[in-house]
Design brief:
single chain, 115 residues, alpha+beta, four-stranded antiparallel sheet, 2 helices, 4 strands, 15% helix, globular
């Protein structure tokens, strides 16, 4: 899997964290059908006036499939200030999970695949 993290500095934008929160609530549905997306988190850093997103992608995500419009970029008026992508090498779930705890990553091979 891979994780993509994007941030926008809102210092020079008319968009605010509050206005972006309102709009993102109505934009979430478009992401449910994105092939290869495991989870998307919209994040806010109020202390530093930044807005962002974290996206977890399956290793076999199709690169040629369309994605929903980048609503944050539209509202903020520019592409992200920062974009980083990382390879996920291991995961652990908290004790809220109903799945039994694996004894090793080989117990869940999909969690040990490289992107």
């Amino acid at each position: 899997m891979t994780v993509t993290i994007v941030w926008w500095d809102l210092a020079d934008s008319a968009a605010t964290i509050e206005s972006l929160e309102q709009d993102m609530r109505s934009s979430i549905d478009a992401w449910y059908e994105v092939e290869g997306l495991r989870v998307k988190l919209w994040i806010a850093d109020r202390e530093n006036n930044r807005w962002g997103a974290v996206m977890w992608w399956a290793p076999d995500r199709p690169a040629d499939r369309p994605r929903p419009p980048n609503r944050a970029a539209e509202l903020i008026g520019r592409p992200p200030t920062h974009r980083t992508q990382f390879e996920v090498v291991a995961t652990a779930e908290g004790n809220h999970s109903r799945n039994p705890r694996p004894s090793s990553l080989t117990d869940y091979p999909e969690r040990n695949q490289h992107a």
